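Long-time lurker. I teach an intro course on protein structure, and each term I like to show students one example going from raw sequence to a predicted 3D structure in token notation. This year I'd like something fresh instead of my usual example. Would anyone be willing to generate the tokens for the chain below so I can use it in lecture? Attribution to the forum is fine with me.
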Amino acid sequence: MAKKYFGTDGIRGKVNQGNINGEMFFRFGLAAGTYFKNLKKTKQTAIIAKDTRLSGYSLEPALVSGLASAGMDVYTLGPLPTNGLAMLTKKMKANMGIMITASHNPYYDNGLKLFGPDGLKLSDKIEKRIEKLIDSKITKNLSEPKNLGRVKRLEDGNDKYIKILKSNFPKKFNLKKIKIAIDCANGAGYRSGPRLLESLGAKVVKTGIYPDGLNINNKCGSTYPKKIQLLTKKHKADLGISLDGDADRVILCDEKGKIIDGDQILAMLATRWKRKKILKGGVIGTLMSNYGLQKYLKDHKIKFYRSKVGDRYVKEKMQKYNFNLGGEQSGHIILGKFATTGDGLLVALETLFSMKKGNKASEIFNIFKQTPQILENVIVRDKSIIKSPKCKIAINRANKLIKNKGRVLVRKSGTEPKIRIMAESENKSLILKCINIIKQSIK
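-- Reply from a regular --
Happy to contribute to a lecture. Here you go:
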């Protein structure tokens, strides 16, 4: 049975439409609190972080109210990267962690990402159980007055997160004499990003650090890499770092201004980790991972498997095969040796740690040739159009055209009202033809 509220990465949508409003966030908090408080007999605790959207001010109190009404003590952390929330959920031995964010989406969207006590995103099975509680009668899950939860604000979440990140590297590791450009997307990493790099001695050129509630991801961040390219070249930085709204993604830029996407980051890390004998098993990519990455890893005798799109599914497959490296082309990279979910700052640190040997970013990246790939997003009213006879015929026709010359992937976005069409092949005109065939059937 399909899920009602959860998509590929939590719950997401337009604010004050559909499920993204105060009433529903109260229900989400009550349901999640009811589910997780029954799993532990010790103190019932939830921690909440958020990105910088204006809507966070109205949605967070409703969520807190739902959790406290379920009998959970709640700690609010304010703006903090998603993996910071995941790390602190585990470190503080909380029952659960909730991140209020719509990740790379515009300011008018918002949503939730839920984490269990192990710092991992929830499985489909648990999400479906919570969905049942969301739709149940509210009074059924309300606590007695004496059992209501207490709420407290913690101001040092970013400091705790930075401390955990730095503990993964040798004490003598520093970034002195290195210039770094960073675009924080006016999002959750606007404090911790520059603060982390500066604490390690780097000279930091920063942008996207003045959130106003409306400018998150607006012509900045990992979905707008042009900004970090220009900043890196203008200031002659050694590396450019571009985060998304909740800082779980990263797109890098070398000193020459060349963009380095998630596939290139995975190739570099896999090669380095194999040489250092710290790579376990191989690499997990997704259906969107470039064929050039697959071929490169095969040539270097590194196992490579694909998961469904979404870093949660990447992590599930990493656990299944006992791999410690996985990620997405979009910049979600999971360093299983250090983290349970994507973390843009952690990946940037691991990259900088590699560069401390004297290598330039342009020398350690771009180590495989990417197969030409085009991704087009078609905005739709109803994503089920992908199952229509007309669309199925078009997809079959495109697959026959590209057979043995490349591949086509058509899927519903799990976070936006869009159908995503991807095609890759060395024959660029064939790619465009296949995409156009499918696009016309959807329109």
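Some talking points for your students: The two ends are 28 Å apart (CA to CA). The longest helix spans residues 22-37.
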